[in-house]
TrEMBL record:
Homodimer. Heterotetramer of two MnmE and two MnmG subunits. Pfam families: MMR_HSR1, MnmE_helical, TrmE_N. This is tRNA modification GTPase MnmE. Mg(2+) binds at S232, T253. It comes from Gluconobacter cerinus. The gene is mnmE. Its EC number is 3.6.-.-.
C-alpha cells in the first residue's frame, strides 16, 4: 500500500506565475479528469508535451488565444494527467479562465498541493519536495546550488544508503536471533558491531555539519566594539547605503540595526550594535544588553578596535579589526580599515569572503538543511546508541528497526501521512 495514496481525484488548478503586470500568465492543472477539462476548453487534446496555439472557449465564448501544453501522466510533474495554459496575463483573462475551470469541475489548489501529489505518486520524495520549496525561495547563488543539489536527490541518496546499510545490519541481527543454535561464525557479530559503529560515526559527523542550514538561512555577522569606534560607518559602507545614523557623539546607536547583504553568493545579515561600555543611561544599557545577545548568536563577529584600544581580551572567534587607520596605523598581523578614506576595506571584504566560504564550502557529503532533518538523524543516532548498548539480541534488533524508520521518515519511505500537511503548507500556491 502506498502511504501517500490520494483520496481526492479532483482536478486542481493554480497560477504558476506571480501576480502583477506581465505579458504571460501560466495556469497549470493536474488530476485524473484533466483530459476532459482540457477538451472542453480546446475542442481536442493537443499532441502530448508539444506547445499548441489554441482558442480557449467556454459556453460558446472565446476567452483567450493561448499556448496549451497537454501533459499526460505518469511523465508529468505530479505523475497525474495535467496541462498548462499560457495565457495573456490580464486580470480579466485570468479570472475568466479560472471561472471556466471551476464550472468544469476543477478547484483551486491549496499551497504545495501540486508537489504533494508528486510525492503521493512517487515522483519526488520528501527531501526533494522540500528542496523544490527552497529553490523557489532561493535568493542567492549558494542557496540555488544547494537547493538544486538536494532536488536532484543528493541528500536522499545519502540517507537511503544509510537505511540500506541498516537493513543489512538488521538482517544479520535477525539471523543471530532466529538461529541461536546454528553456530554462526563470530565474524557475523564482529561485522555487525563494526558497521553499527561506522554508521554512528557517519551520522554524528553529519549532525556536526551545519553548512546547509547556514546556507539556507544565511549567516549573521555582528559588528561589535566600543562606542564611536565606527561600527555604524562600517555597516553603511558594506551595505552600500546609509542604514545607520552616524554622528561624532558616542552612544548614537541604541538598538541593533540589521541589513541584508550578499557576499560572494552567500546571504549575510549584518548587524550594527550599540557600543559596549559601562553606562548609567537606561536606554543605552538596554541597547548594550541587546548587543551582547546578538554577539552570542553571531556566526561571525567583526570586533572594531579604536586607535587607543588593545585587542588582548578578544576571543579566538572574533575578527579583530583596527578602525580609523587614517588616525593611527594597524599593528602587524591585524586587519585595519578607514571608512573615511576606504583604505583596508577591500582586504576586509576578502578576509570575510574567505571566512564565509570556509563555513559554507560545498564539499564532501551533502549537508542537512532543515531542523526536521537534524531531528530525524539525531533520532536515528540515538537508537543506534541504544542498539550498541543492548544486551538482549531482541532489543538490539528493535532499536535497529527504529533507527531505520527514523531515516525512512526523512525521505517518506515509511508512513508519514501526518507530516504532509505541515511540510506542504509552507509552499506557495501553484507549486
Amino acid at each position: 500500500m502506498n502511504p501517500f495514496s490520494s483520496s481526492d481525484p479532483q482536478v486542481i488548478f493554480a497560477l504558476a506565475t506571480g501576480a502583477g503586470r506581465a505579458a504571460i500568465a501560466i495556469m497549470r492543472a493536474s488530476g485524473p479528469g484533466s483530459a476532459s477539462v482540457l477538451q472542453s476548453l480546446c475542442g481536442s487534446l493537443p499532441e502530448p508535451r508539444r506547445a499548441s496555439l489554441r482558442s480557449l472557449r467556454h459556453q460558446g465564448e472565446v476567452m483567450d488565444h493561448a499556448v496549451v501544453l497537454w501533459l499526460p501522466g505518469p511523465k508529468s510533474y505530479t505523475g497525474e494527467d495535467g496541462f498548462e495554459l499560457h495565457l495573456h496575463a490580464g486580470p480579466a483573462v485570468i479570472a475568466c479562465v479560472a471561472d471556466a475551470l471551476t464550472d468544469l469541475g476543477a478547484r483551486p489548489a491549496e499551497p504545495g498541493e501540486f508537489t504533494k501529489r508528486a510525492v503521493q505518486k512517487g515522483r519526488l520524495d520528501l527531501l526533494q519536495a522540500e528542496a523544490i520549496a527552497d529553490l523557489v525561495d532561493s535568493e542567492t547563488e549558494s542557496q540555488r546550488k544547494q537547493a538544486l543539489q538536494q532536488a536532484d536527490g543528493a541528500l536522499s541518496r545519502l540517507y537511503d544508503g544509510w537505511a540500506q546499510r541498516l537493513r543489512l545490519v538488521l538482517a544479520h541481527q535477525e539471523a543471530l536471533i532466529d538461529f541461536p543454535d546454528e553456530d554462526l561464525p563470530p565474524e557475523v557479530e564482529h561485522t555487525l558491531l563494526a558497521e553499527m559503529l561506522a554508521l554512528h560515526n557517519e551520522m554524528s559527523a553529519h549532525l556536526q555539519d551545519n553548512r546547509g542550514e547556514l546556507m539556507r538561512q544565511g549567516l549573521t555577522v555582528v559588528i561589535a566594539g566600543s562606542p564611536n569606534v565606527g561600527k555604524s560607518s562600517l555597516l553603511n559602507v558594506l551595505s552600500g547605503y546609509d542604514a545607520a545614523i552616524v554622528t561624532h557623539r558616542a552612544g548614537t546607536t541604541r538598538d541593533a540595526i540589521a541589513v541584508d547583504w550578499v557576499l560572494d553568493g552567500v546571504r549575510l545579515r549584518l548587524i550594527d550594535t550599540a557600543g559596549l561600555r559601562e553606562t548609567e543611561d537606561e536606554i543605552e544599557a538596554e541597547g548594550i544588553r541587546r548587543a551582547l545577545f546578538h554577539v552570542k548568536q553571531a556566526d561571525v563577529i567583526l570586533h572594531l578596535i579604536g586607535p587607543d584600544e588593545a585587542a588582548d581580551a578578544l576571543s579566538s572567534d572574533e575578527i579583530a579589526v583596527r578602525a580609523k587607520i587614517d588616525i593611527a596605523p594597524a599593528p602587524p598581523n591585524m586587519l585595519g580599515i578607514s571608512t573615511q578614506t576606504g583604505e583596508g576595506l577591500s582586504e576586509l571584504r576578502a578576509f570575510l569572503t574567505q571566512r564565509v566560504s570556509a563555513m559554507t564550502a560545498n564539499a564532501g557529503a551533502p549537508p542537512l538543511t532543515r531542523a526536521r532533518h537534524r531531528a530525524g538523524i539525531q533520532e536515528a543516532v540515538t537508537h543506534l546508541d541504544l542498539a550498541r548498548g543492548a544486551t538482549w539480541p531482541e532489543l538490539r534488533g528493535e532499536e535497529l528497526r527504529l533507527s531505520m524508520q527514523a531515516l525512512g521518515r526523512l525521505t517518506g519511505r515509511v508512513d508519514v501521512e501526518s507530516l504532509l500537511d505541515a511540510i506542504f503548507g509552507q509552499f506557495c500556491i501553484g507549486k
